Each structure stands twice: as C-alpha cells, then as structure tokens.
Automatic annotation (TrEMBL), chains A, B:
Name recorded for this polypeptide: HTH hxlR-type domain-containing protein
GO-annotated molecular function: DNA binding
Transmembrane regions listed in the UniProt entry: none
Keywords: DNA-binding, Transcription, Transcription regulation
Species annotation: Prolixibacter bellariivorans
Amino acid sequence: MACDASVLAEVKMCSGNYVMAVNDTMNVISGKWKLPIIGSLLYGKKRFKELERDIEKITPRMLSKELKDLEMNSIVSRTVHNTIPVTVEYELTESGQRFKAVLDVMVEWGIEHRRNVKSEIMGVKL
Amino acid sequence: MACDASVLAEVKMCSGNYVMAVNDTMNVISGKWKLPIIGSLLYGKKRFKELERDIEKITPRMLSKELKDLEMNSIVSRTVHNTIPVTVEYELTESGQRFKAVLDVMVEWGIEHRRNVKSEIMGVKL
DNA sequence: TATACCGGTATACTTTAGTATAGTAGTTAC
DNA sequence: GTAACTACTATACTAAAGTATACCGGTATA
C-alpha cells in the first residue's frame, strides 16, 4: 500500500512524512508578513520598495528578513539587475506560485467555516 | 461576476473577503500546538489526559489554553460527562473535520515542494 | 550643495508566545 | 491515611517575534 497522505487510515504508517510535509508548509506561512508578501507577488514580480509600499505598515527590516527566509526556502527568487542604480526584483518561484492552491483551499475553508459559525450563533439550521 | 476566490483576477474585487477568510484559517493553525491537537483529534474524540499523553512535551497549561482557543473558534467541542469522577471529552466539530481538506493540500504542496527543492540542490531536472 | 530615491542594515526596545513548576478540588484503590 | 487518578489553574519566568528609529553607500536631480 503506497503512502497516500489523503487517506486518514494510512496516516499512521506515513505519519513521519505527513508531519514533515505539513511542517514544510507551515514554515512558509509562519510569521506575520509572509502571506502578505506572497499575496503581493502573486500579481507579478516586484521590487523592494514596491513591496514596502504595497504592504501596509511593514518595516524594511521585516521585509528584508522575510524575503530572505522566503528565498532560502525557494519560494521567492531574487534577481539583481545591474542597471544604474541597481534594481532588485523579487518573484515567486514555481513552488511559490503553486502555493496559491494552498491559499485557495484555506479561503474555501475559511468562508465555509464562517458561514457555519454564523448560522450556529443565529440558531439557524441551513 | 460572482466573488470566486479561486480566480486570481477577481481577488482584487473581493480582496476583503479573501483576506478575511485566510485570516480565519490562519487563526486556527496559529501557535505551536493547534495542529498537533487537531491531528490527534482526527482519530476520534479524546479526553484531556489522553491528549496530554498523545502530544509529546505539551504542558497542561498550553493544552488547556489551546483547547479553549479551538473551542471558541468552533473547531473543537467540549463535553462534560457527569460520571464519577467527571470526564471531559474533546471532539472536532464539523468544521474541524473539514479542516482535514486544508491539511491534505498542505501536505501535497509540502511534498511537491520538497521534491522540487531537492532536485534543484542536486542539479537534477526531473 | 541639498534633497531624494534605491536597497537595504544596526541597535535597542516592546510585545507575544511558550515553558517550568507547583498546586487545586474531588474520587478511588490499597 | 496515603498514593494515584481526573481536569485543570496560578505564578513566574525565558525565548521568540516584531517594532521603532536611525543610519549606510551609491546615484540622480535641482
């Protein structure tokens, strides 16, 4: 029987890999600013200052730090163009773009969940 | 045009809801222990001490705190049975169980990502 | 020469998250 | 009566995450 993470009964057998994969994913979204950065880059490549302007209230220190994390984890690529002055472009890698699938499911669940909780509070059976 | 979170072009229109839904989901998994707890409860209802034993190194303080958070967010339900002594059972709500879909996509992405990064490091084109 | 843009870094601080350790009230078994 | 189980809570602490503020070297513009 192959290790298929989508089958609950098999999780026990493959729990090491399952947990490892979830942790990998969690690392990508850990911290206050990673999702805003990824979200911003979903619209296309951006320069440092563009990101700084796009993402409200982020400080250059945090932007720099989070971009480094994302680059290390191969979510974002950094390209230096030797224009004068130098320009630096940040872009989602293929993995980074595929991450949108995770976001989509999170959104789906979030919307459903909110619907459920609301109807529960209002005592309504949908 | 309806607000469909899965279509990137529409995100701008509906970005408020999109962001809100992602935040809802993030709240569920924020913190070191929420996923271990949810993971443990995927196998069925558990009592406090069972969870404490299942989840390595968690302290009762954190377990209690995280369970309260999860209960407040309608991910987990708490039932007191008036046996002697009282037993308390924690169980995933419907929303909590549906959350497995999010975990599955996270696992899928995590595995794919790891494959990509590894082949990149080894200079292999799959 | 002064001002502003670029892509950041340095230092010091606050705030939040998590840990360690002990203790609670009630019940049961020896 | 004493030890052990249940489901927790309280207090005090440490560690991690994030913020505020200022600054860097380089270039271009007025």
